[in-house]
Amino acid sequence: MNDLTPFGRAALLAFAALLLAVPWIASGYVLSVSIICLYLAYMGQAWNLMLGFAGLLSIGHALFVGLGAYTSGYLFTKLGVPPAVGVVAAVAVAMAMGSIIGYLGFRFAIGGVYFALLTIAFSEFVRILLDHAKFLGGTEGMFLPVSQESRRGVDLVNLRGSTEMYYYVILALAAGAFLMCRALLNGRVGYYWRAIRDNPEAAEAVGVDIFRFRMYAVLLSSGMAGVAGVFYAFYYNNLFPEQVLGIERSIEVTLAPIVGGVGTLFGPIFGAFILTPMGELLTEAVEGFKQSGLIAKNVKTDGVKLMFWGLAVALIVLLKPKGLWPWVCERLRLVKPPGQRG
Amino acid sequence: MTSKKSAVTGKAIRRRSVLAGGAAVAAAVPLRFAAGQGKTLKIGLNVPRSGIQANFGQDSVRGVELALEVLAGKGYPKVEIVHVDNETKVDVGRAQAEKLIDQGCTMIIGCYDSGITSAVAQVCEQKSIPLVVNVAAAPQITDGRFKTVFRNFPTGPMIASDAFLLQKEVYEIAGKAPKSAVMLHANDTFGTSQKDASVRLIGNFGMPYKFEDVISYDPATRDLSAEVRKAKATNAELVWIITRLNDAIMIVQEMVKQRWVPMGIVSTGPGPYDDPFLKQLGKLSDDIINMVPWFDPNKAMSKAMIAAWSKKFPDRTLNTSVSHSFEATLIALDAYKRAGTSEPAKLIEALRKTNIADNVTVGPAITFDDKGQNTKTRNSAIQNRGGKLVSVAPKQAAVTKPIWPMRAWNARG
Amino acid sequence: MDTVTIINALVSGLLTGLVYGLSALGLSVIFGVIRIVNFAHGELMVLGMFMALLLFRWFGLDPLMAVPIGAAVLFAIGYALQHFVVRRVSYLPDHMQFLLLAGIAIMLVSGCLVIFGPDAQGVQLDYALDSFAIGNLIIDKVRLYAAIAAVAVASALLAFFKYSSTGRAIRACADNYLGAKVVGLNVDRLYALTFGIGAACIGAAGCIILLLVQVHPYLAPAYTLLAFVVVIVGGMGSLFGALLGGMLIGVSEELASVVLQPSMKTAFSFALLIVVLLLRPQGLLGRVAR
């Protein structure tokens, strides 16, 4: 907090207040979109740990989400275990997979793009296995039981309730993730991570156990993704391997943090809140052009939104490779320049 | 250090423009209490217009628009259709459903994909808005968990059962029945559920064959030679396929290349009746029998639908997505007419009492059971002939006799 | 499963594998020299396929005849891509390059969706479904042609890199970037040429593959992944490695289909990828990464 300028502090408080107020002032649609936004912000934070702090590019993070979702979903559907308890198992399974991939990556010294391909391979492999796993529904899907009564009220143990409840749950997760990462980064673990990221040889020379701390980042990252999987399962109430573990989902997770700024704390959140509304606004804009007659009504425009979206992402990479958040911070004077920090 | 004054003004200007920009964005954001209920019924159409199932979604849109045209002259009230694209994604489908409801839609038609339909059904349930399902086959959608869903499309098990009955009719007319069968199915939601239902139910129908092998393949695969080779090795007489579009084309091409001529090919999924299939394979597409939900060409409403379609889209085939979206619109308009209001609760009541005899699909009048399923709708057996589809079974919907066994690949005129 | 079927399976796997290898050649060339992982690989190939489709529709041109045109057009696109766009991010970390190319890929796919629609489209040729029969062995005609084309293209490329001065200059850049600059080679131009050549390979592959499958905008990701698997197994940067990797994947997929359920054959390929990544990340014929 003491890194922020007065304006920065005010902006942060205003943002937090706005987030808390969303269910009261927004329509059902905006609420749904906000949930997607916060979900991506949370996942972005988790993914960011692995790249920003362990230096590993993962394009297979949907794997951990999927493992968490299927574990908690199965426990709930077949054994009646509520998600409040099931989340422990979900995190355990996701972390186990994370540890396998992380261990293999380090043990065999696979980095950069090869590691990314390793994550894709694992993710696709598990997805196809899940397609064939009849006891988990396979390609026919796993449907979680949902009832009309459970839609009213708030049941946090079983994660059943109104959309507003889900909103606050994901908000708590996203805020919690942010605060946790901040605390870690400013602590001893964070210093080791930064040392390993900036200069691994020097870090090793002063006695930092690179393997151990990198594994911490990997475990934390995969565990967090596992929790997201539990949320996903109980919010959408149906799981299909293609929808949950498909490679588009893994790519989707990486967009917000890369656009916002890898390795920064607020970058993933900022990125999520830029990209999601941007997508919606583009859809509205295309519809608007059609309504106003600028484009004839029968011209096929399915796909135009995606095209502009891809263009926007490419432009951001070309013009602001460090991410948008550091630039915004600087321009709006949200943080004190390095020389003036206490 | 820069002059303090300009630094402060500079900050103030930036802050102001940020706040102004924020206000502009906020003004565009639909607020919670803005939704109203106008006089005319607003129906939301939530289908995939992009993404992997885009062609089905776009066909659904055509079906709905066709229905509005055809039914306009028949005394049905006017409605407004609000289009959204669910991009074949569950989260987008769900958010778009919320948007439709926010914009004042008190009925939704959708969603083609079972996963998306299920998620949208939850939203509709929460907001007590009726969902009329045009196409979606997962049985769970109408197993009682939802009270505001009405589905005029058969479930997977219904399609499988009907396929056995239709086959019996065809074999009887043709006088020849296969003694062995092989199933080749795409390993996706629909394909697997069909396979499971068929394998489970075959015992109930006393079929003259049993399945020698059941082969599942990845629908996204680029090459099906191995799968077809495996099927050919069984020497089965009946080839039962459940495919998407591209794989259907590849399967037939491989069968030709590997010089395999079984007694006949039956399909219970999309693919062999789609335009790209017929166009790509030409006379090689002939003689495949599709046993799928379809329209009954002998019904009066169907004739009106077909006439309007051939005027509007002379180069496209009128397929399942079109006919069932047409009927979903018919159901919606019929309920609206009887309810006399666009209030969702009244619409749901009216939908429960639906009884439409003047419809297009095969089977008796459209009615829904207490779980919202039309259990009486039946499938057709339609055979590919010269790039067109002709109804060969059941009897009341047939226009000609089936060709069975199929002709050899190089014996087609 | 009798011997005839197994032999048919193996032959088919080999031929299909060569086609896979052809589609992966472009990726191998680009990565081997410029060290950029082209995540828009599949999308570029789909572009080549659509182009061959248009040439067939408008001029009745057989896709095999369209190969030089497809290659030329894609060469231009690849050259422009490297020169105007990719060059600017070559110093950025891997994830930024990945995102840039992913963004470009999304643009290409949606562009194709808007222009061509989602329906699958293909060419209808008289000989497309012919096969040669040698005793009990049935060989798919088109696959054989495609396999021959793959070997021809790879050989041409190899000759280019070995014997022409431009080719040697490109190899110099790949081996020693700094050294190449020191001796005065115009590395930027050579990189652009290389991307162009890689894209040309992809374009050629697209034209040929149109004989075997229908094209639609969503075909791309599967081909990108396939190319990666082939190139990693065979070796990044090795031309014959790409062909060898392709053949290995082709045959193993056939065998996996025979022994297991065919729907698991892609899982088998990914398992193979994991094993290769762990035990021999440079692939079978690749050079050890610096």
Short note summarizing the structure:
The complex is a heterotrimer of chains A (342), B (413) and C (290). With 342 residues, chain A is mostly helical.
List the helices and strands and how they pair.
The complex is a heterotrimer of chains A (342), B (413) and C (290).
Chain A: H1 6-25, H2 28-53, H3 62-79, H4 83-107, H5 112-131, E1 142-143, E2 154-155, E3 160-161, H6 163-186, H7 188-198, H8 200-205, H9 210-236, E4 238-239, H10 241-245, H11 247-260, H12 267-291, H13 304-319, H14 324-331
Helix pairs in contact in A: 2-6, 2-9, 2-11, 2-12, 3-4, 3-9, 4-9, 6-7, 7-9, 11-12, 12-13
Chain B: H1 4-28, E1 41-47, H2 54-72, E2 79-85, H3 90-102, E3 107-110, H4 114-127, E4 131-133, E5 149-151, H5 156-174, E6 180-186, H6 189-201, E7 210-217, H7 225-232, E8 238-242, H8 245-257, E9 264-267, H9 275-281, E10 289-293, H10 300-312, H11 320-339, H12 344-352, E11 379-385, E12 388-393
Parallel strand pairs in B: 1-2, 1-3, 3-4, 4-5, 6-7, 6-8, 8-9, 9-10
Antiparallel strand pairs in B: 10-11, 11-12
Helix pairs in contact in B: 2-10, 2-11, 3-4, 5-6, 7-8, 8-9, 11-12
Chain C: H1 3-34, H2 41-59, H3 63-85, H4 94-116, E1 131-134, E2 137-140, H5 141-163, H6 165-175, H7 177-182, H8 187-209, H9 220-234, H10 239-259, H11 265-279
Antiparallel strand pairs in C: 1-2
Helix pairs in contact in C: 1-5, 1-8, 1-9, 1-10, 2-3, 2-4, 2-8, 2-9, 3-8, 5-6, 5-8, 6-8, 9-10, 9-11, 10-11
List low-confidence stretches of chain C: none
Give the uncertain stretches of chain B in residue-range form. 1-37
Helix content of chain B: 40-55%
Which structural class matches the secondary elements of chain B?
Answer: alpha/beta
- The CATH topology name of the largest domain in chain B reads Rossmann fold
The description of the largest β-sheet of chain C is: 2 strands, antiparallel
Shape of chain B: globular
- Helical amount among residues of chain C, as a percent range? over 70%
Under the CATH scheme, the architecture of chain C is: Orthogonal Bundle
* Total E-strand runs of chain C: 2
Radius of gyration of chain C: 19 Å
Looking at how many chains there are and whether they match, the oligomeric state comes to: heterotrimer
Biggest sheet strand line-up of chain C: 1-2
Distance between the termini of chain C: 46 Å
Strand content of chain C: under 5%
Please identify, by name, the CATH architecture of the largest domain in chain B.
3-Layer(aba) Sandwich
- Biggest sheet architecture of chain B: 7 strands, mixed
Tally of individual helices of chain C: 11
Count of DSSP helices of chain B?
12
H-E order of chain B: HEHEHEHEEHEHEHEHEHEHHHEE
